[in-house]
Design brief:
Layout lengths: L7 H5 L12 E17 L2 E14 L28 H23 L16 H9 L5 E3 L10 E5 L10 H8 L4 E4 L21 H15 L4 E6 L1 H9 L8 E5 L9 H7 L1 H9 L1 E9 L15 E9 L10 H4 L13 H26 L14 E4 L4
Parallel strand pairs: 1-3, 4-5, 4-6, 6-7, 7-8, 8-9
Antiparallel strand pairs: 1-2, 2-5, 9-10
Helix pairs in contact: 2-3, 6-8, 7-8
Length: 386
């Protein structure tokens, strides 16, 4: 590609609220295992590995990144370079290959609301991906603070999603005092599509493993769960258990606009069973573009304290992730035929991040960052805000 692309840091700066120079944040990776779930593949057999990524407020001296003489922001690609035991290195490389393929399929190949692939000639899709992954993030490599006593967020990606699909969300929360955790909830399987489950049931064990780790990091502070799509569905299937999380943000399960319980029972039986049988002892924020107004039909009877947020303008299912909006950085460098539509999605995504931050700040009990949506409120709400 000719010349550097607009940096991810410059794009993400649009999400900083009244803060031209956001505070520095750190990034670290670590390894956990779900002892209740077995994984076998690519030379490894044992408990399912959870390749954890963490973003957090950075105090004191910035750690010197590996292999550099001067501290510098990590680029997107460098978020995927953990130090792993030899038994897991091939597993992780196979996972990355599948994550890259999913990124190309869902985030690069098609324009917003379009069905024909984008023509990137003279570049290949792989070259476009590599150029985007070379963009700078806001994070520095640093040691994960094990005694920070900060609120912690666990993020769960959607089906065929990526552990780092929401870097801007992670940075936005870290710049505002939160620790943000994400990891793989998929594993590479030979001769299976990416996302094929190890067990055809909710993976509550992996969620509990991460939430237990989050509790340790929080050191007495609150722990929250954010899930997108299948990640939100997994939250509904798990978080009715008392004490797992202090609040839950559900980002478009895809059930929000459904009214046919027969269809829902066929496609999402575990979720339907959970929301009809259980109660949820925590505040819940549901966000979804239902092409209407909340509350959502199947969720009206849930025993929980639920708030609803529904974008007034069309908001794509993948637009909840910064991975989908990365392509916007290619304007002027490679073909971005839907640049105006991406701009609209980008700004609505930023407004959503501000809403999520305000919701969790309220749960923590810290001052809530004032919402500044510009041209009016972009969301339908329920309960209706004064």
């Amino acid at each position: 590609m000719r010349g550097p692309l607009l940096s991810l840091a410059m794009l993400a700066a649009a999400f900083a609220v009244a803060q031209p120079s956001p505070p520095p944040i750190g990034f670290a990776d670590t390894l956990l295992f779900n002892d209740g779930l077995r994984y076998s593949g690519f030379g490894y057999e044992g408990p399912a590995p959870l390749f954890v990524q963490a973003w957090f407020p950075l105090g004191g001296t910035i750690a010197e990144p590996r292999g550099r003489l001067e501290p510098d922001h990590l680029c997107f690609r460098e978020l995927r370079e953990p130090e792993l035991p030899s038994a897991l290195q091939r597993v992780y490389q196979q996972l990355l290959l599948r994550m890259d393929s999913a990124f190309i399929e869902y985030d690069l190949r098609y324009p917003f609301l379009g069905e024909e692939p984008i023509d990137y000639v003279p570049y290949t899709e792989q070259q476009v991906k590599d150029s985007l992954f070379a963009l700078s993030t806001h994070a520095y490599r640093a040691e994960l603070p094990l005694d920070a006593s900060r609120p912690v967020i666990l993020y769960h990606h959607g089906s065929q999603g990526l552990s780092d699909e929401n870097v801007w969300m992670a940075e936005h929360f870290a710049e505002n005092g939160f620790i943000f955790l994400s990891c793989n909830f998929h594993w590479p399987l030979e001769n299976k599509y990416y996302g094929y489950p190890l067990v055809w049931a909710p993976d509550s064990g992996s969620i509990r493993t991460l939430l237990d780790f989050a509790r340790q990091l929080a050191n007495g502070n609150k722990v929250f769960y954010i899930g997108h799509s299948w990640g939100a569905q997994e939250g509904w299937c798990t978080l009715h258990e008392p004490g797992l999380a202090d609040a839950f943000i559900s980002l478009e399960t895809t059930m929000e606009w459904k009214t046919d319980t027969v269809e829902v029972r066929d496609k999402w039986p575990h979720v339907l069973e959970a929301i009809t049988k259980h109660s949820y002892r925590m505040p819940i924020l549901m966000v979804a573009d239902s092409d209407g107004e909340p509350p959502y039909p199947l969720f009206k009877g849930i025993r929980a304290d639920i708030r609803y947020l529904d974008p007034k303008e069309p908001f794509g299912h993948e637009s909840y992730t910064s991975a989908y909006l990365l392509r916007r950085a290619g304007e002027g460098r490679f073909n971005v035929p839907d640049s105006d539509a991406l701009d609209a999605q980008f700004h609505l995504h930023g407004s959503m991040l501000d809403e999520l931050l305000a919701f969790l700040q309220e749960q923590v009990g810290t001052p809530v960052t004032p919402l500044k949506h510009g041209n009016g409120d972009p969301f339908h709400r329920y309960p209706v805000r004064d």
